[in-house]
Amino acid sequence: MGEKIPLELLAPARDAPTAKEAIMAGADSVYIGASRFGARAAAGNSVADIAELCDFAHVYGARVYAAINTILTDSEVAEACALIDDLYEAGVDAAIVQDMGLLEKCKSAMVFHASTQCHISTPQKARFLSACGFDTLVLARELSLDEIRAISAAVDNRLECFVHGALCVSYSGQCYLSAAIGGRSGNRGQCAQPCRMKYRFEDSLGREIAPPAYFLSLRDMNRSASIAELAEAGVSVFKIEGRLKNAEYVKNITAYYRKIIDGLIGENPEMYERASFGETSLPFEPDPRKTFSRTFTQYHLHGICAGNESFATPKARGEFIGRVDGVFDGGFSFAGAREIFSNGDGLFFDGKTQLGACVSGVRGDDVFVGTPSQHLKISPGSTVWRNRSAAFEKLLKLKVQRRRKILLEVLERGRQWVFRVSTPQGDCAEVELPCSCQVSENFAAASESLRRNLSKFGDTAYLPEIEISAGRLPYLKPAQINAIRRSLVQKLTENILSNYDVRRRALSRKPPQKIEFKESPFSQDCFANIYNSYARQFYKKMGFDVPENAPETLSDFGNLRVMTTRHCILRELGMCKKINPPKNFKEPFFLTSDSARLRIKFDCRRCGMDLFFQG
């Protein structure tokens, strides 16, 4: 039998408190933005905060990854390298990076993960990034199971796959739409999300093909039903999107996938194992429908398909409740409303007109929304969705606890008593009592007192099993026993962190190795996103003299391909050019808004689209 595969649940964190909530809810690892250079510029954190988070996480054997995944100028490369040095000393387990200049310039031993911004979509690209020295490869979101299997067969690296959260409609790292429209580059951490805007869909003569809608807006990913298939295909790190989401969302989604992954491990104990330690106790039943979602899709995991769009709204729909029974000014009727709705619930109504509103009161089967001055009118026959559950959010705010099982032994060693704690993984700590301590005359009473007071581990990370094997016991007051327990907790935590850091520092980034390719690893990329001289030097060392710079260096985006995507508007509208092409319209087709005009090139060979910026 081979070694077991650790299955790792990776959760997002906009800040250290959110990261701690994720870990308590069962995350094996968290990813968090550093103070600069993260693809979510609004989610930066100080080195000091991340250092404190690392100590918290490492007690549970959980890892902390720092996102430094923007493209960088020459001066920023040097600054990022210094930041990586600081993060390594702070205890960070790996840096998630996109810019190849860091591989050229950075001398830190920090392990690097290849960001999804690297657009890892083919075995050739995976082999290239493996040769560059990356440890873990974060796969493109668009890949099918067959494509993941092909990549897994080509490399020995750990494969990381998004399983839940918002979807970028473009191939990650290959979107320049935000930069073209307003100078805010997604590759620089400043995406303005123009894919969530409303567009007109027109032919070359300006005729409307379909009514205006959010034609580039996708549903949210939910691959919870396919975790076993992903593991079989070679994925061992399951990633939740959401570094801008609140702690309640992260807690709910993390807890949901923790249960699924634990179930898979339980069914295959000879094959898989947990990647960290500690059991979580939840005061709620996790449910992804009850926190933010645009409804869900597996997004081409089982082959290219329709049903991925969120054309009606880019905002959260949440949990489907049903169809309204009737409407009145300022509200609606719904059978059993009092048991279903609560004051403060956020609702979305989808009917002849769309409306979002907050529940202000429930009386019998009548639900009142908004305020009297708003005069909200819901369309008859509308479906109602709940995108905020006030009752569920109250439960999410309750404390979640995660505790590692330890053995606490009371032993005699020579003429001394020893209090010893140990983890199943071999970490341990001891407190010795001198032989001058008074021997208790009542063994049973002393044993009961020890068990009662030694078991009070409260909010610590540990859950003790107490074993008393000493033939005699010391006479100790409760305060003395409590002091021993606190000392054991402190010493064990220090030893766990020290041993963890020794193992962490034993790992280091592999040096790059130039290898030959029959097919270019960049065959599906528009650009290699070279933004500094160090990246260009690195590509040359690896045998690739890439001619162009990143589009962000351009002053004019005119007619530039600004998006490549596996999404297809025609497929989603039931107008697939292979099956039921739109008639009586003149190509090329365009998406237009007040901010941009985009020419669409449908690539039916790969079932996708390219968008070209027309101004």
How would you characterize the overall build of this protein?
The structure is a single chain. It contains 15 helices and 29 strands. The protein has 615 residues and is α/β, with parallel strands linked by helices. The chain folds into three domains: 5-167 and 219-282, Aldolase class I (TIM Barrel, Alpha-Beta Barrel), CATH 3.20.20.70; 296-396, Beta Barrel (Thrombin, subunit H); 403-505, no CATH class. The strands form four sheets. Strands 1-2-3-4-5-6-7-11 form an eight-stranded parallel barrel, surrounded by six helices. Helix 3 (74-90) links the parallel strand 3 and strand 4. The protein is globular and about 100 Å long.
Summarize the structure.
By secondary structure, this protein is α/β, with parallel strands linked by helices.
**Major sheet: arrangement of strands:** 1-2-3-4-5-6-7-11
Number of domains: 3
CATH class of the largest domain: Alpha Beta
CATH architectural name of the largest domain: Alpha-Beta Barrel
Distance N to C terminus: 60 Å
Classify the secondary structure makeup into a structural class.
alpha/beta
State the helix count. 15
**Average pLDDT, to the nearest integer?**
95
Largest sheet descriptor: 8 strands, parallel, barrel
Shape: globular
Here the CATH topology of the largest domain equals TIM Barrel
